[in-house]
Amino acid sequence: MSILVYIEHAEGKVKKTSLEAVSFANALAAQTGEGEVVAVALGTVDQAELASVGKAGAAKVLHGADARLDAGVIQAHASAVAQAFQKVGAKTLVLAKSSLGDAVAARLAIKLQAGLVSNVVELPNTSGGYTVKRSIYTGKAFAETAVTTENKILAIKKNAIDLRTDGADASVENFDVQLSDADFAGKITATERATGEILLPEADIVVSGGRGMKGPENWGMIEDLAKVLGAATGCSKPVSDIGWRPHHEHVGQTGVKVAPSLYVAVGISGAIQHLAGVNSSKCIVVINKDPEAPFFKAADYGIVGDAFEVVPKLTEALKAE
Ligand code: FAD
Description:
Shape: globular
Number of strands: 16
Distance between the termini: 50 Å
Protein name: Electron transfer flavoprotein subunit alpha
Keywords: Electron transport, FAD, Flavoprotein, Transport
InterPro entries: DHS-like_NAD/FAD-binding_dom, ETF_a/b_N, ETF_a/FixB, ETF_asu_C, Rossmann-like_a/b/a_fold
GO molecular function: electron transfer activity; flavin adenine dinucleotide binding
Largest sheet: 7 strands, parallel
Structural class: alpha/beta
Strand content: 15-25%
Strand order of the largest sheet: 7-10-6-1-4-5-11
Bound molecules: flavin-adenine dinucleotide
Order of helices and strands: EEEHEHEHEHEEEEEEHEHEHEHEH
Family: Belongs to the ETF alpha-subunit/FixB family.
Number of helices: 9
């Protein structure tokens, strides 16, 4: 028996959230005695990159290298993962909570007749049952969910699990996925790459600007700070509504939900709808000239000051490090 982990990758790299899912599965296997952790990766990705998944605790990676899987067609991925699940005799599938993960997990819950819990934040309590703690209401509360099915799917919340990095390289095995035309009934006909060097939903550090930045001509300051920190750039909703920044940078309840290690908010008031998208961040730094700005209540560090003075000084100080 094994625990299966569905791995996502982008631009040749396995996503950190998937490595967190592997780390979770590794600890779960030690707890429940479900054997080794096997990962399944689909589409074109380098073998050495896949072997490195072992560092997070996978013994083996099944690689379904069929190039038709590159497009991320959800039905095809769900079908391939179901085949991997049967192949390794798993009862538990672990994956990262993400747009693709959610879509694949929902289909797999039907295919595998599995109980699905999303936004899992810690290992299940398996003493006398199987109860899983998950984050709800955009991180404001937790719920305990009892899973009673034999097959289980756990989608792990980003940044909730410590990443394991001390394992040995995994063996990579070719996985011959059987796919039919029906698996490709839904087609992705065009994709557009988001601008910016680092993609916002994946970023470990995010620098966001709000209406306090006064206009798009001042965004160089945000970009300079982001560059020196190796961060993605984000913004508040009104900023993208006015057209100062593209919509895919809009962070919050109605935009991208981020969970970086560090979130720097510049000239953003901290309305509840914005906080809903950032409150899973590990550390929040707020720069605002109004000491009463609500964002300071959610901040780990706050700088009361004019962004036009503080941000360039901060960038210069970081450059000098
Ligand atoms: P403002 O509220 O105008 O705040 C600007 C801040 O900049 C102020 O705190 C001010 O003190 C500060 N400031 C001004 N000048 C400077 C300076 N020189 N230096 C430093 N600080 C300065 N908003 C989101 O962001 N994301 C969402 O997903 C979202 N979803 C919404 C959904 C609904 C249904 C609704 C009703 C609203 C939603 N909003 C969302 C909007 C939200 O309520 C706020 O209006 C918005 O977040 C405010 O954006 P802001 O902080 O950039 O602007």
